């Protein structure tokens, strides 16, 4: 979290929400660590919901999205607005993600022409919202940036693909699927991008083993070209 005191917060910034307390470096325990990192105690805090005025151009962006979607659909789509470190993030319900992304792209007052990437985050302590997909957007027309975040449970890690709206998400969604296990429904070729097809687990989740992972490449074979994956 920022070192800002309550009297020096950004406009609209809410109180942080502590979801867990992390002990030690990287969450590893009983490791025989003698470096001193094992004694670290740090809260896992999520930025709190913002209130108006959000500051800067953020109010105009939110107002334009409300106008594009309609107030009722906006309320159904946006769980909360977060203003943190001069950045605007909208927490979106997955059922409404495509509608929000389409409005961001097409509405002349928004015109976020480019989705610059998709990232995954794993919060094991955020019960029922363990997996987060984070999307960065850029409006070249208005010189603005925006972030959308979608949270889903580990037991149901499905999020609609944005490939049909922003084709640049193609490989980003594949990488997030590979490393975090988030399934992007509707993606044209949702296969692993870095790990082998038969790799077990998702290496960037926080509960993935840090050591002692078997060398799964040992004895691996490469199939002939006519038996490899093909993309249309």
Any key phrases for this structure?
Beta Polymerase, domain 2; 18% helix; 5-stranded mixed beta sheet; alpha/beta
Describe the secondary-structure layout:
Elements (H helix, E strand, L loop, with lengths): L13 E10 L17 E8 L9 H12 L1 H7 E7 L2 E6 L4 H10 L7 E9 L8 E9 L4 E9 L5 E3 L8 H12 L2 E3 L47
Parallel strand pairs: 4-7, 8-9
Antiparallel strand pairs: 1-2, 3-4, 5-6, 6-7
Helix pairs in contact: 1-2
Protein model, in words:
- There is one protein chain.
- The chain has a 5-stranded mixed sheet. The protein has a two-stranded antiparallel ribbon with strand order 1-2.
- Strand 5 and strand 6 (131-139) form a beta hairpin.
- The longest helix has 12 residues, at 58-69.
- The chain has helices spanning 58-69, 71-77, 97-106, 169-180; strands at 14-23, 41-48, 78-84, 87-92, 114-122, 131-139, 144-152, 158-160, 183-185.
- The protein has a domain at 44-183: NADH:ubiquinone oxidoreductase Nqo5 subunit (Beta Polymerase, domain 2), CATH 3.30.460.
- With 232 residues, the protein is of the alpha/beta class.
- Its main location: membrane.
- It is a peripheral membrane protein.
Q: The biggest beta sheet, please?
A: 5 strands, mixed
CATH superfamily heading of the domain at 44-183: NADH:ubiquinone oxidoreductase Nqo5 subunit
Question: Quick one: overall form?
Answer: globular
Radius of gyration: 20 Å
Number of strands: 9
Our measurement of the CA-to-CA distance between the termini, rounded to an integer number of angstroms, reads: 45 Å
Structural class designation: alpha/beta
Compute the average pLDDT: 85
Count of DSSP H/I helices: 4
Q: Strand order, biggest sheet?
A: 3-4-7-6-5
Order of helices and strands: EEHHEEHEEEEHE
Query: What percent of residues are in strands?
Result: 25-35%
Per the CATH scheme, the topology name of the domain at 44-183 is: Beta Polymerase, domain 2
């Amino acid at each position: 979290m920022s070192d800002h005191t309550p009297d020096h917060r950004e406009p609209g910034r809410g109180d942080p929400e502590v979801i867990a307390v992390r002990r030690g470096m990287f969450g590893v325990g009983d490791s025989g660590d003698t470096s001193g990192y094992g004694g670290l105690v740090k809260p896992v805090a999520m930025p709190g919901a913002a209130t108006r005025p959000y500051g800067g151009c953020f109010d105009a962006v939110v107002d334009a999205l409300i106008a594009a979607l309609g107030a009722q659909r906006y309320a159904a789509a946006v769980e909360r607005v977060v203003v943190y470190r001069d950045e605007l993030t909208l927490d979106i319900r997955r059922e409404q993600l495509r509608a929000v992304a389409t409005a961001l792209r097409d509405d002349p007052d928004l015109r976020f022409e480019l989705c610059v990437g998709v990232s995954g985050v794993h919060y094991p302590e955020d019960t029922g919202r363990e997996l987060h997909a984070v999307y960065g957007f850029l409006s070249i027309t208005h010189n603005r940036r925006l972030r959308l975040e979608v949270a889903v449970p580990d037991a149901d890690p499905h999020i609609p693909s944005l490939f049909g709206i922003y084709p640049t998400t193609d490989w980003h969604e594949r990488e997030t699927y590979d490393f975090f296990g988030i399934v992007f429904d509707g993606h044209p070729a949702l296969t692993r991008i870095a790990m082998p097809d038969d790799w077990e687990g998702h290496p960037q989740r926080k509960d993935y083993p840090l050591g002692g992972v078997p060398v799964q490449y040992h004895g691996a074979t490469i199939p002939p070209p006519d038996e490899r994956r093909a993309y249309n």
